[in-house]
Amino acid sequence: MFGLKMATHNHLHGQNRFAVIPTVEKLKANSEFTGKGVTIAFLDSGFYPHPDFATRIIKFHDVSGEEESLKIVEPQSHHWHGTQTVATCAGDGNLSDGIYRGLASDANLVLIKVSETGRISDKSIENGLLWIIENRVEFNIQIVNMSLGGDDDIPLNESRINKLAEELVELGVIVTVAAGNSNEMRSIPPANAPSVITVGGYSDENQFENNSFDLYHSNFGETIDGIVKPEILAPAMFVAAPILPETKDYEVAETLSMIANSPNYAFRQTFLDNWKKAELPEYILSTDIDTAKQLVEKELNRAKIVSTHYKHVDGTSFAAPITASVIAQMLEANPKLTPAGIKGILVSTASRLADFPAIRQGFGVLNASLAVEEAIKEMHFFGHKTLVSPNIEAGKIVFLHHDDNARSICLAGDFNDWNSSETSFTLGKNGIWRAEISSLAAGKYRYKFVVNGENWIEDRFNGMKDEDGYGGFNSILMIG
Q1: Which residue, among 173, 162, 89, 189, has the nearest Cα to 132 in the 3D structure?
Q2: Whole-prediction pTM
Q3: Phi, psi (rounded to 5 degrees) for 265
Q4: Mean pLDDT of 236-265
Q5: pLDDT for 96-131, tens place per residue?
Q6: Which of 58, 76, 219, 427 has the most Cβ atoms closer than 10 angstroms to its Cβ?
Q7: Which H or E run contains 142?
Q8: Which value, to the nearest 10 degrees, does the dihedral of the CA atoms of residues 163, 168, 171, 175 take?
Q9: Residue 178, SS3 per DSSP
Q10: How many CA atoms lie less than 13 Å away from 366 in the CB half-sphere?
């Protein structure tokens, strides 16, 4: 374990009036589960042993060999990103009196630095994934988060990164990946690997009401292999994350917070003693107390500072680890869940934002509490290829689905004139619903599953799909 001794201080750790909603409240999450007994690995540019998670780091590895340990003398710019992604997932909120804790605040952590002189290359990502494959059993790694991407949008069979990500999933490791932030119909490895959970972003506008939610400018759309990404959306704006300790930003935030929180009788002297350290303009010295306080608060707001040691950040880099934290809760609640089971629950419990195209959202917004609830109830556990659908068996085209709440399922598509009752599924003892049709002529066929006679849904385990014109997707079957 990695410890960190912080200097004593006399300031408060509470939120200021620009505070953002803590993740537990933001997601209306089940706080009973904290990822205890679950190990999450992070591939990122670098890390600092922050007090929010330092004692739970069970292994640090630098693929470049630049840093032999986390005994960092002077934090560098490449340390901040990994530190913040870990904390948003698994920090315990040590420097915020527990307010800004991640959902996986008791998880064990394996940190893999994949940058060299601050740059991340395809080769370093490959080396990081290889290290996890080789060491996953020793450290009991169950989840891997990658808030990073390779250089080029290339097919699966040409991407070493994607092949390694697929291998990890096949070995039983759940992989979450940030979709990217360019708002382009483009996806790069490992976000375009079929079996990973690619996470786009939404913004709750720092409000609880769903009608105020908006889409974040995530990457989206069909990959070069024809798979639609992302699968799911998670918070990508107004997310609290630690300010990197032992940096100028940390000192400025700490000093600004101290000045802003000082009472009127002590404000002027506190300001006089600390304005330079807080990097405030000198002209504030000549203003009255009320004006000076307003100007200090304006600077807090501009710097996105939400409490003494935290600011709010944005990007799918944080949506992905938040999703990983929910997965850690699910695994704590039901350790037998496999990657296929986890992915199935996440997408089936998500809900799309109204008035936004499905292609931007995948299955929609993460529902943390419902995902954990369904994880607790799940009694079927599927291997990596168990629910591949559709597939060919003995000359027949076979479709598979899993839904313990279904009473009936039918197959409707171009091949049966969209008849919602002609082709029925049968339920097997393993909890898998199965339907089959005769072979088809070469071509592209659209289809859906009709659950309980009224709920038309896409095939959750077929990433090939197109928009249906009604706010959802048709699944795609390609023959020949």
Answers
A1: 173
A2: 0.95
A3: -65, -25
A4: 95
A5: 999 999 999 999 999 999 999 889 999 999 999 999
A6: 219
A7: strand 141-146
A8: -130
A9: strand
A10: 33
